[in-house]
Amino acid sequence: MSGACDRAMIDPYNAFLCRDESAGGSDGPLAGITVGVKANIAVKGMPLHAGIGAWEDRRADLDAEVVSRLRAAGASITGILNMEEGALGAKTDNPHFGPTQNPHRDGFSPGGSSGGSGAAVAAGLCDIALGTDTMGSVRIPSSHCGVYGFKPATDRVRQDGLIAADATLDAIGPLARDLDLLERVSQVITDFGDGAIAGSGAVLIDHNVDVNPDVLTAFEAAVAALDSAPTDVALPHKQSRIRFAGFIGVSKKMAEDLAGVAVSENLAKLLTYGPRRSAEDWAEDQIIFAETREAVRMIIAEYGFLILPTVPNPPFAHSDAEPAAQADFTCLANIAGLPAISIPAGWTEDGLPIGVQVVGPAGAEAGLFALARQLDHKMGAYRAPNS
User: In angstroms, how far apart are the furthest CA atoms of the chain?
Assistant: First the structure.
C-alpha cells in the first residue's frame, strides 16, 4: 500500500475514506475475507487520523495487533473507514470527511462512532469491519445498519495501534452480516473464552429511558424468544445519569489527549464538559461509575446475562439532532468491562432496522455467541438493504 488516498467519495455511502485496490489475503481460516478498518486503528501505510482533519496526512508505521492477527489468519485488509471526529458521537457526520449514509435509507445516519464500519458491512462493501466501542460505538451502528456487532470485554482485546477515546472503556470489535463470521473473526482478534452461559438472564426495569414504541416491540419479541423468562432487575442510578458520568470521563480524557490539536467547533464544545466539571460533581460521577460497574457485574454473575435494546431509538435523519440517549443501554457493558453482542431484532413500521443486545461474562464468549445465535435463529430479523 503506497499510502495514497483520494479524498473523492469512494462509495455512494461515504463509508470508505481510502481503499487499497491491490490488497490480497493469504492462506488461513479467514482466507478470502475482506476487512475494512475504522480510521483510528493502525493499518501500515494507510491513514490513521481518527476522523480529525488536522491529522489527515498521518500514516500508520505498523499494523495494530488486531490487524496483524487478521492478516496472519489470511484476511485481506481493504481500506480505512469513516467515523465520528475523535470517536466521540453516534451520528457519523464528520466535519472533515463528510457524512456517512445509512444503506437502508439515504440521508439517514448509520450511527456511530463507527458509522463507516456499520455502513460498509451493511452495504456489502466488505465482509468484516473493525470498529471501536467506547460507550456503544460498535453496537449502535450495528443496530442502525441492521447488522451484527461484537464488543469484547475490555481486557480481552489488544489496543496496540488504537487512538483511544478512553482506554479504560474502549474495545476494538468487529461487525458482520452474519453471526458465524462475526464469531470466527472474534476468535482471531480477541482472547475468546469457551465458557457457557448459565442462568435465565435478566432484564432492566425502571430504567427511565424513553424507548421508541417500535424498538420496544422488537425488544419484547426478543425477550419472548428466550428459552425461559428473565428476571426483572434494577440499577442504582438512572440510565441517563450513568451515561452522562461515562461521557464526562471520556470528555476529560480526550481533552487531555487532544490539547493543542485543531478540532471542529462541535468536538471542541464536547471536550469542555469534562475539564469544567467541579471536583464535587466529578467525585459523584466516579461513585456512579463504580456502583454501576459493580451492579452490572453482580447481575451477570447471578443471572448469566442481561438482555437490552441496543439503542432506544431507530435510525434518524442526518438533518435531525442526534438523540442524547443513544448510548443509555450500550454504555453498561463498557462501564462493566464485559462482552456484548448486538443482533438485528426487527423493523420500524417504515422499514428501518432495530437491534437488541446481550451482555455476558468475560470468559464465556462462546456461550454468549450461542445465546445470540439462538435468538437470531428464532427472530430471523436480518434483512439486507433494499431486500
Answer: 56
Residues marked active site are found at 38, 113, 137
Sign of CA dihedral 177, 178, 183, 184: negative
* Cβ–Cβ under 8 Å, residues 33 and 101: no
Residue written as grid cell 467541579: 278
Mean pLDDT by 10 residues, the chain (387 residues): 59 96 91 98 97 98 98 97 98 98 98 98 98 98 98 98 98 98 98 97 95 98 97 97 98 98 98 98 98 98 98 98 97 98 98 98 98 98 93
Partner residues linked to 59 by β-bridges: 47
Checking 5-11 for CB contacts under 8 A at 24+ apart, the result is 5/46, 5/47, 5/80, 7/97, 9/98, 10/79, 11/120, 11/123, 11/125
Q: Which of 287, 315, 336 is nearest to 385 (CA)?
A: 315
Q: Give the span between the Cα atoms of 132 and 97, in whole angstroms.
A: 18
Let me know the angle formed at the C-alpha of 150 by 63 and 297, rounded to the nearest 5 degrees.
Answer: 115
Single-letter residue type at 363? G
What's the rounded Cα separation, in Å, for the pair 221 and 199? 19
Rg of the chain taking only CA atoms, in angstroms: 19
